[in-house]
Amino acid sequence: HKKYRRFETVRLTDRTWPDQEINKAPDWCSVDLRDGNQALVNPMSVAQKTRMFNLLVKLGFKEIEVGFPSASQPDFDFVRKLIEEDRIPDDVTIQVLTQAREALIKRTYEALAGVKRANVHVYNSTSIVQREQVFNMSRDEIKAIATQGARWVRDYAAQYPATAWEFQYSPESFTGTEIDYAVEVCDAVIAEWKPENGQKIVINLPATVEMSSPNVYADQIEYFCRHLKQRDKIRISLHTHNDRGCGVAAAELGVMAGADRVEGTLIGNGERTGNMDIVTMGMNLYSQGIDPELDFSNIPEIIDVVEYCTELPVAARHPWAGELVYTAFSGSHQDAIRKSVNYHTEHQQTHWNVAYLPIDPRDIGREYEAVIRINSQSGKGGVALVLERDFGIELPKWMHAPLSQQVQQAAETQGVELSAATIKTIYEQSLVNVP
Ligand code: KIV
Ligand code: ZN
């Protein structure tokens, strides 16, 4: 298998994370307006960015990466707009990305002039591939870029004393970096920033390209947390991408392995296969009874805004949010849902425990109408339920089987889903034929 390079990385044998579970939401940081935006066919307009920013605030995000102002004039202008129009709530920290180059760092602070609080996020690539093939630099040279960048970030911040600054460093392509070297670089950056004097610092550990399974990423996170010198004074952040389809799983295991914070996007927009999806991880927590500390009570609104801003459709089977994820067409599923929902109501259960429905769709702003839909695969339980639900018609037991046969026949002939109105018509016609 010469084509596939196996990357040797840390594998803990004394890991602690399998014993743990997430019992509290991590700090969330949305990167929709930066990583999400930079991956779009058409970058967001000012109107789209503003709508996304307002939604993120409404959902309860306290940290929002709003762009890469030194690399893009529209991003620069958007940061200025947020500040000059006083659109940033006092409890929200905006974050901006910059490379570790002096001119770019200087420009970043110009974009942020006058902001009350902000996080300046500096990064450089540290992986073997990038060092050897992109930069042609030694480990010491790459480390020097990081520490020099950290000094510029610190020194320019001093020119704007009225702002509450936070600093963030990402060893980009962390998962392709020798772990002890990644710790060494981050220790050196942290030493420049002096958390011991109260400086707020985030170290963000990206799976820039998802190259390994989530358990390997979690081992790397646990090892990093154990070896970082001033771990207790630093927030450790995760930034996972979804190349192998496991961006959310990696973030969840990474939190179990000791991280404090997660960066991601709504519905998983972002480079290539996207960033980890905060809606999915948040809803995973919710379904386990843990408050995600983000408001997902109106997911249809989230989908509207995401589709408007990204100009990409949300898949019908997207976890928790897709149009079809709370819908059953098949007869046996419909029957089980109907019985289970009735049981839930009759017994006034406090915990949702309904067959085939992992949560109550109403919790996220969806109606029960979409749960049972009728096509040629549907059964008698579904037909009876639609008549009762939409028209208050209580179908006598003896009619269940013959009517559902007629409905099934009609659906097979038409080859499409049948509306509730069509089912009612079939029911009324069948009454005419009753002997
Ligand atoms: O994926 C990545 O590595 C990034 C960094 C800039 C944090 O987006
Ligand atoms: Zn990224």
TrEMBL record:
Biochemical pathway: Amino-acid biosynthesis; L-leucine biosynthesis; L-leucine from 3-methyl-2-oxobutanoate: step 1/4
Chemical reaction(s) catalysed: 3-methyl-2-oxobutanoate + acetyl-CoA + H2O = (2S)-2-isopropylmalate + CoA + H(+)
EC code(s) of this entry: 2.3.3.13
Domain named Pyruvate carboxyltransferase: residues: 26-300
Coiled coil: none
Main location: cytoplasm
Localization (cell): Cytoplasm
EC top class named in words: transferase
Role played: Catalyzes the condensation of the acetyl group of acetyl-CoA with 3-methyl-2-oxobutanoate (2-ketoisovalerate) to form 3-carboxy-3-hydroxy-4-methylpentanoate (2-isopropylmalate).
Name this protein carries in UniProt: 2-isopropylmalate synthase
Taxonomic lineage from the root: Bacteria, Pseudomonadati, Pseudomonadota, Gammaproteobacteria, Oceanospirillales
Gene: leuA
Full-protein residues shown: 4 to 438 of 559
